[in-house]
Amino acid sequence: MNLEEYAKGNQLFRTYFKKNKESLLKLAKSGQSPKALFIGCSDSRVIPDMMLQTNPGDLFVIRNVGNFVPPYKPDEDFHATASGIEYAVSVLKVQEIIICGHTHCGACRALYEPLEDPSLIHTKKWLELGESAKTSAILSLGANANREELLRLTEKLSVVKQIENILTYPNVKRKFEDGTLHIHGWCYDIETGKIDYYNAETYEFSPLKDLVSETEA
């Protein structure tokens, strides 16, 4: 896709903009008040608004390599992801946090295939956030397990690990414990479009569609 194609795409969007001008201008004048923070992967195949059919203003989105959440360490590191989390929770006061992983994740695969390119110095450091998920997957299935099964489990266990990490943020933990903030772990299947959610009571991932009542399905 060249710049001309992007320009054509923007023209199509402007048609949408004109049809929805009233609601979009309201967002511009009144500011945003999204109900959910969506933390997803930068992977170009993962498109939050399309996956969930949400409208402008519905989601505050953070995307990074591997949908990782760095633990709370204000005195050691500075992360754009951490800043986004703080802003969403403390300023926008979102009620939901969704941490969404996905199948065929390049970040999780890279945990098993060390990067040799010296120009990827920041990426190598960032991938350390996924090491605990890799370790847990190997302990569960064994180092000689089928590679694809190992990767699928790593992708899901990484989501669980990121939930643990986000709960290290004081304001997130406080709001979660008092019930004003809910945290969800999802895994999106890029081959089917389906989403599974993490059930903290059963420690398993179940189809998100099961949460939709029969009358709405």
Overview of this protein structure:
- The chain starts with a helix and ends in a 10-residue tail after the last strand.
- With 217 residues, the chain is an alpha/beta fold.
- The chain contains nine helices and six strands.
- It is globular.
- The model has no long low-confidence stretch (mean pLDDT 94).
- A six-stranded mixed sheet has the order 2-1-3-4-5-6, with helices on one face.
* Terminal CA distance: 37 Å
Average pLDDT value? 94
DSSP helical segment count: 9
Could you say which structural class the secondary elements and strand pairing correspond to?
alpha/beta
Oligomer: single chain
Strand order of the largest sheet: 2-1-3-4-5-6
Query: Helix amount, in percent?
Result: 40-55%
Uncertain segments of ≥5 residues (pLDDT<50)?
Answer: none
Biggest pleated sheet? 6 strands, mixed
Shape, per Cα inertia axes? globular
Strand content: 15-25%
Keywords:
single chain; 217 residues; alpha/beta; 43% helix
Give the helices and strands, then pairings:
Elements: H1 3-19, H2 21-30, E1 36-41, H3 48-52, E2 59-64, H4 80-91, E3 96-102, H5 106-110, H6 121-126, H7 131-141, H8 147-166, H9 170-177, E4 182-188, E5 195-199, E6 204-207
Parallel strand pairs: 1-2, 1-3, 3-4
Antiparallel strand pairs: 4-5, 5-6
Helix pairs in contact: 7-8
Summarize the model shown.
With 217 residues, the chain is an alpha/beta fold. Helix content is 43%, strand content 16%.
